[in-house]
């Protein structure tokens, strides 16, 4: 949802890149190629690299009639779903891995009834618990006994609410932001790192870190 | 008649009588806990166990949504009735409730809460809002915490503050356990179109720290409580990430302020672990305990708030981009006014350096002629509740609260229209 209005500060606005959608997506289209040629140029990762090799360099002659127009268009305009979703997918996986309170994510189930032992104040004598009747009562019991998960609830949402919760309220990262420069750090030692592992795309800064990486984290090293 | 305020955070509940001071606010774990030997504990009973290893949490609020009233009710009952907490609140006896609820709560869940509040607990009236929504009403205190302070900014920003008034333009940054919310407010009302969510909260930062420590030092994958303690004691936001990195890599330089030694629990002399300060070090040497030396881990995890891409999460914008996105939804004329009134609340804001770093970064990306001011209260975790307490004294509150009679007369959908988001 970029608009002209957003370039309110000419000082930080890169004059060389004109804000038209075509130029922005073109620079994206180059990414799979350049990532293969120069491992340091693009932030990639295991799956992105694997998949992008199919959409990148290798141009095959296709038999007449076998052209997939939308695929070609995607390639030209950089909306190739393989590249985009691969990065999003692996980012989502990575996020879920880190955004867990219990690492092993074993959700323990509660027994049917539990009573916690603790000392209580005696209930006041004037206490009158209101009586709820009819449908409201049934609903209230349902609410208080429900063991439905968040996923259950999300499934039931109408499309409008869903798109608000899952999309509208989040800010998409700008790819080539003129505002915030993206950081590129070594996945082993955390130092700034211009280069990435040729096997999997994770960033490594030095021979030393690269060796540690190969022995521990590299998803593709032994596979190669 | 008395008013109860519950800031129902997904990590902790902050609860107390509106009329009582800040010091009487009680903080409770909003969870059920299972110990390694499979005992179930409720809320603050967590503090009674010696072995924090392998403890697991079950929370009624998942990803900011109050999913389980089954669990939440057990915790609220504990909050109201237990002598551990010490509040002794009879919800059925003439009580008004001010309750916080995450922005963009799923409508059905929001209505479920209303029903429980009125029909299960019998509260007399309810007012519900994201906790950030109370901040403008604490204008008097907000003015005291802004950096740069009003005096140093000069005349333009100086405004006479009267009791009971609110700031017309306010940007609240609520960085909690589940997420970081950017909430613009105009004339005391949330500007919903501009409310933005950054999925990075305390839980994520702990996850990053857990991974780093496990990869480099000891396996702490099963040590949720310990990781949380280490994070609280040692993490800070670096004012210049590259400089901090250099400082750590440099040999023999003065990196005292960047390196920390954390004594791990041995379940004998310490159950939670602690930071080995130079003073402590002089007094005695820990003998059998293991010591964890932390370097860049201390500021790498917090850095993900600004740069999620450093942990290979490329599909999320950092906090600065998210704030800019939020500001850009506002009419142009309002933008400079709102960035002059930023207040940071929520547990993550306890991290040293957060406000200064954010101020620096915003000054870089915003026009130079805009005056950016950020206020960070001395206790960002309870400040929202404190603001709600100020709000409870206003006439506005009397106008917007919904009584049980209203609820019965107009029904849950009508109530939800009053409290829910609207785009
Ligand atoms: Zn390295
Ligand atoms: Zn690799």
From TrEMBL, chain A:
It comes from Wickerhamomyces pijperi. The keyword Zinc applies. Keywords: Metal-binding, Zinc, Zinc-finger. Residues 40-56 have a biased composition (Low complexity). GO terms for molecular function: zinc ion binding. Residues 29-59 are annotated as: Disordered. Residues 186-218 form the HIT-type domain. The keyword tRNA processing does not apply. This is HIT-type domain-containing protein.
UniProtKB/TrEMBL annotation, chain B:
Pfam families: Actin (PF00022). CDD domains: ASKHA_NBD_Arp6. It is found in: Cytoplasm. Keywords: Cytoplasm. One of its GO terms (cellular component) is cytoplasm. InterPro entries: Actin, ATPase_NBD. The keyword Nucleus does not apply. Component of the SWR1 chromatin remodeling complex. Belongs to the actin family. ARP6 subfamily. Component of the SWR1 complex which mediates the ATP-dependent exchange of histone H2A for the H2A variant HZT1 leading to transcriptional regulation of selected genes by chromatin remodeling. Involved in chromosome stability. This is Actin-like protein ARP6. It comes from Wickerhamomyces pijperi. The lineage of its organism: Eukaryota, Fungi, Dikarya, Ascomycota, Saccharomycotina.
């Amino acid at each position: 949802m970029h608009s002209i209005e957003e370039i309110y500060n000419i000082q930080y606005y890169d004059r060389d890149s004109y804000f038209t959608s075509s130029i922005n997506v073109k620079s994206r289209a180059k990414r799979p190629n350049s990532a293969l040629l120069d491992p340091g140029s693009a932030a990639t990762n295991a799956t992105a690299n694997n998949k992008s090799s199919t959409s990148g360099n290798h141009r095959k002659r296709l038999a007449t009639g076998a052209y997939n127009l939308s695929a070609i268009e995607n390639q030209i305009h950089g909306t190739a779903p393989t590249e985009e979703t691969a990065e999003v997918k692996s980012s989502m996986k990575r996020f879920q891995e880190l955004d867990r309170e219990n690492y092993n994510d074993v959700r323990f189930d509660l027994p049917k009834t539990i009573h916690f032992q603790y000392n209580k104040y005696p209930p006041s004598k004037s206490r009158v618990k209101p009586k709820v009747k009819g449908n409201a009562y049934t609903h209230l019991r349902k609410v208080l006994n429900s063991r439905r998960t968040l996923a259950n609830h999300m499934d039931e949402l109408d499309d409008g609410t869903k798109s608000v919760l899952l999309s509208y309220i989040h800010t998409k990262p700008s790819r080539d932001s003129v505002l915030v420069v993206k950081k590129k750090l070594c996945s082993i030692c955390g130092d700034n790192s211009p280069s990435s592992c040729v096997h999997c795309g994770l960033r490594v800064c030095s021979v030393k870190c690269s060796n540690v990486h190969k022995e521990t984290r590299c998803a593709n090293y032994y596979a190669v | 008649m008395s008013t109860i305020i519950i800031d129902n955070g997904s990590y902790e509940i902050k609860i107390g009588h509106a009329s009582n001071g800040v010091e009487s606010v009680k903080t409770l774990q909003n969870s059920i806990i299972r110990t390694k030997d499979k005992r179930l504990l409720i809320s603050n009973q967590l503090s009674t166990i010696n072995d924090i290893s392998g403890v697991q949490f079950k929370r009624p609020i998942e990803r900011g949504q109050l999913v389980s009233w089954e669990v939440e009710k057990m915790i609220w009952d504990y909050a109201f009735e237990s002598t551990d907490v010490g509040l002794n609140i009879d919800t059925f006896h003439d009580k008004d409730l001010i309750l916080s609820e995450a922005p963009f709560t799923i409508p059905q869940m929001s209505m479920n809460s209303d029903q429980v509040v009125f029909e299960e607990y019998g509260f007399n009236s309810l007012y519900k809002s994201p906790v950030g929504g109370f901040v403008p009403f604490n204008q008097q205190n907000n003015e005291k915490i802004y950096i740069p302070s009003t005096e140093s900014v000069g005349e333009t920003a100086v405004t006479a503050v009267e009791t009971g008034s609110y700031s017309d333009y306010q940007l609240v940054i609520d960085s909690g356990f589940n997420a970081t919310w950017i909430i613009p407010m105009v004339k005391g009302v949330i500007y919903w179109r501009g409310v933005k969510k950054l999925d990075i909260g305390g839980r994520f930062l702990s996850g990053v720290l857990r991974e780093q420590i496990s990869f480099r030092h000891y396996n702490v994958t099963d040590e949720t409580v310990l990781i949380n303690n280490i994070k609280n004691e040692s993490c800070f936001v670096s004012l210049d990430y590259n400089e901090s990195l250099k400082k750590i890599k440099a040999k023999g330089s003065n990196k005292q302020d960047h390196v920390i030694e954390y004594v791990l629990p041995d379940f004998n002399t310490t159950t939670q672990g602690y930071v080995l300060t130079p003073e402590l070090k002089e007094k005695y040497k820990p003998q059998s305990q293991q010591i964890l030396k932390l370097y860049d881990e201390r500021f790498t995890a917090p850095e993900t708030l600004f740069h999620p891409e450093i942990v290979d999460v490329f599909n999320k914008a950092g906090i600065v981009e998210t704030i800019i996105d939020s500001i850009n939804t506002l009419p142009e004329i309002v933008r400079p006014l709102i960035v002059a009134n930023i207040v940071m609340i929520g547990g993550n804001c306890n991290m040293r350096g957060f406000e200064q770093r954010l101020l620096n970064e915003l000054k870089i990306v915003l026009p130079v002629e805009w005056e950016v001011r950020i206020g960070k209260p001395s206790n960002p975790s309870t400040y929202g509740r404190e603001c709600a307490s100020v709000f409870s004294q206003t006439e506005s509150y009397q106008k917007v609260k919904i009584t049980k009679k209203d609820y019965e007369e107009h029904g849950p959908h009508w109530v939800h229209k009053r409290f829910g988001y609207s785009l």
